[in-house]
C-alpha cells in the first residue's frame, strides 16, 4: 500500500512538474522539428524546377526569393546558406551549397530563371577553373555575378555557389572600377 500523500509532498511534486514542463516542451519541439527535415529525401526532389522542366533539363527548382536586396534573385530550392549576406562597397554577396547538383546545373538554372525575370546576360557561362563556372547579368543599373564550383572532399556531389549583386553599376562596370572620389589631377 502507498503511503498517504501529505500536502507538502504534493506541492513539491507540482513544483518539480512545473519546472520540467518547459524542458519537456523544448525537447518535444526540437524532436518534431528534426522529424521534418530529411536531407537525403529532399536532394532528389529539389533537383527539378517543376514537372514541365523534368524532361527539358535537370536543374534545381526555384524556392522563390530571399528578403532584402536579393528580392529580384531566385535561390535554387534545396540550397543551404553557407554564409550570411554581406555588404562591402555597395556589393551584396551570399554563398550557398546544393547537394546532388553540379555547377553546370546551377548555372543552367540561373541562365533560365534570370532570363525569365528580365535579366540580360552580359557574360556567358564560362569555365573559370576545374569544375568551376561563372556568368554575369544586368537589369537596369544592377549587375549580378554568379559563380559555382564543385565542392572538394565531400562524398555526395555538392556544389558551392556565390551570388554577388552590384547595385547601381553600369553594364560591364566591375566593383573595382567604381569612382572612389579621388582625382588623378595631382
From TrEMBL:
* Species assigned in the record: Ilumatobacter fluminis
Tell me where on the tree of life, at the top rank, the source sits: Bacteria
In Swiss-Prot or TrEMBL terms, this protein is called Lipoprotein
Signal peptide residues are: 1-33
Query: Residue ranges of region Disordered?
Result: 49-69
Query: Which keywords belong to this entry?
Result: Signal
